[in-house]
């Protein structure tokens, strides 16, 4: 998974990059189809805005949040992306499991 972190109107600090990278790598448990993640962190006067875009095979998900602190903006945005991926992951059904099911009660 390719992770790209960009800052608009401010320099993204190393601890913020590390924090975002560690959190985003945890999203692999929901979907193995994620190919790239683009995080845009923006500052406009007193507003801190974070936008996360996930791209992958048959997948494009975005979330954008605004807060007074960049860490809290990222956390709420990350929560929204996580919720979207969880919902999509639950919709996928595994039909092969039924085909090979053995009825042990009949024996």
Question: Can you walk me through this structure?
Answer:
With 107 residues, this protein is an alpha+beta fold. The protein has a single domain (2-91), classed as 2-Layer Sandwich (Double Stranded RNA Binding Domain), CATH 3.30.160.100. It has three helices and four strands, in the order E-H-E-E-E-H-H. The protein is elongated, with a radius of gyration of 18 Å. It starts with a strand and ends in an 8-residue tail after the last helix. The mean pLDDT is 87.
Task: Describe the strand arrangement of the main beta sheet, using strand numbers.
Answer: 1-2-3-4
Helix residue percentage:
25-40%
Q: In the CATH classification, which architecture applies?
A: 2-Layer Sandwich
Q: Supply the CATH class.
A: Alpha Beta
Taken from the alpha-carbon principal axes, the silhouette is elongated
Order of helices and strands: EHEEEHH
Mean pLDDT metric: 87
- The CATH homologous superfamily corresponds to Ribosome hibernation promotion factor-like
Number of strands: 4
Q: How big is the Rg?
A: 18 Å
Count of individual helical segments: 3
Short description:
The chain is α+β, with helices and mostly antiparallel strands. It is built from 3 helices and 4 strands; from the N terminus they run βαβββαα.
Per-chain topology:
Layout: E1 2-8, H1 14-25, E2 34-44, E3 47-56, E4 59-67, H2 70-91, H3 96-99
Parallel strand pairs: 1-2
Antiparallel strand pairs: 2-3, 3-4
